[in-house]
Design brief:
Keywords: Lipid metabolism, NAD, Oxidoreductase, Steroid metabolism
Order of helices and strands: EHEHEHEHEHEHHE
Helix content: 40-55%
Number of strands: 7
Strand order of the largest sheet: 3-2-1-4-5-6-7
Mean pLDDT: 97
Organism: Novosphingobium beihaiensis
Number of helices: 7
Structural class: alpha/beta
Protein name: SDR family oxidoreductase
Family: Belongs to the short-chain dehydrogenases/reductases (SDR) family.
Bound molecules: nicotinamide-adenine-dinucleotide
Distance between the termini: 46 Å
Number of domains: 1
Radius of gyration: 18 Å
Largest sheet: 7 strands, parallel
Pfam families: adh_short_C2
Length: 266
């Protein structure tokens, strides 16, 4: 069976870890040639080596998504290496650092400098990725698919006020850009995961307590299972694939039913 992204070229940001790494591996498994971009070049290189070891084609690109010139250059490098760009996956994202031993930092406890950085990565990083991809699709005279990692925190109060505001911005950008870019044959969607055990927020996916942490995370969801980075990558894969050729402007929750509501009674 042909993969869902056979022959496509995808650029994935935040590719050195978590969801981005999972997406590089999954997109490649489905036939895509992948450019793995990350602010941490060594981590991106490690992802690229993993993809190549599994038989795929992947290059690593060091790139800070808050630098529009670097994002443009990353898109150019991906297109040059593989002939074109079909898919832009804006996945890089960060959150406000938690308070040690307490967890989420309340809005009034947030440092303005850190807030600006989170806004820059989570909002402008996605905006620059969309701009660069649209310019490239225009140059090619093709359409394309854009997907971003928003969060369930962009759909409901969850996971910190400032972080949620940045992800809400991505949710709204996805809808508005889908309308604007539809005439160009460009589809724009986002995935909205609930909590995953990745390096995000200073968590340790290799923690000795991994199973207990995952069990606790799962209890928060109607389906009872923690979200795996591969679950999010799979939703992104679908949205980028031709199976979703008539889907645009969608913010797809990957949250085990969390945002659907809550049980009544009992
Ligand atoms: N883990 C969660 O609980 C969770 C929940 C909902 C949404 N998300 C979102 O999922 C996405 C992926 O996060 P993750 O959980 O895989 O976290 P992660 O920390 O494991 O991976 C994020 C990657 O992004 C890279 N990165 C950070 N700043 C960057 C920048 N300026 N330019 C380029 N790369 C940068 C990091 O180096 C890292 O490799 C993020 O957008 C995050 O907000 C995560």
């Amino acid at each position: 069976m042909e993969g869902l992204l056979q022959g496509k070229v995808a650029l994935i940001t935040g590719a050195g870890s978590g969801v981005g790494r999972a997406a590089c591996l999954l997109f490649s498994e489905h036939g895509a040639k992948v450019a793995a971009a990350d602010i941490n070049g060594a981590d991106a290189e490690e992802t690229a080596a993993m993809v190549r070891a599994a038989g795929g084609a992947c290059i690593a690109i060091p790139c800070d998504v808050t630098d529009p010139a670097a994002v443009d250059a990353a898109v150019g490098a991906a297109a040059e290496a593989f002939g074109c760009l079909d898919i832009m996956y804006n996945n890089a994202g960060i959150t406000i650092s938690p308070v040690a031993g307490k967890g989420l930092r309340s809005l009034v406890e947030c440092d303005p400098g850190e807030m600006k950085r989170v806004e820059d990565v989570n909002i402008n990083g996605v905006v620059y990725g969309c701009q660069a991809a649209i310019r490239q699709f225009g140059k090619q005279g093709t359409g394309g698919a854009i997907v971003s990692t928003a969060s369930v925190a962009g759909l409901m109060g969850y996971g910190g006020v400032l972080y949620g505001a940045t992800k809400g911005a991505v949710v709204q950008l996805t809808r508005a850009l889908a309308i604007e870019a539809a005439d160009m044959g460009i589809r724009v969607n986002a995935v909205c995961p609930a909590g995953m055990l990745t390096h995000y927020a200073g968590m340790d996916p290799d923690s000795a307590h991994r199973e207990r942490i995952l069990e606790g995370m799962g209890k928060a969801h109607p389906l009872g299972k923690a979200i795996d980075p591969r679950d999010t990558a799979a939703a992104a894969l679908f949205l980028c694939s031709d199976l979703a050729s008539n889907i645009t402007g969608v913010n797809l929750p990957v949250d085990g039913g969390l945002s659907a509501g809550r049980k009544t009674g009992g």
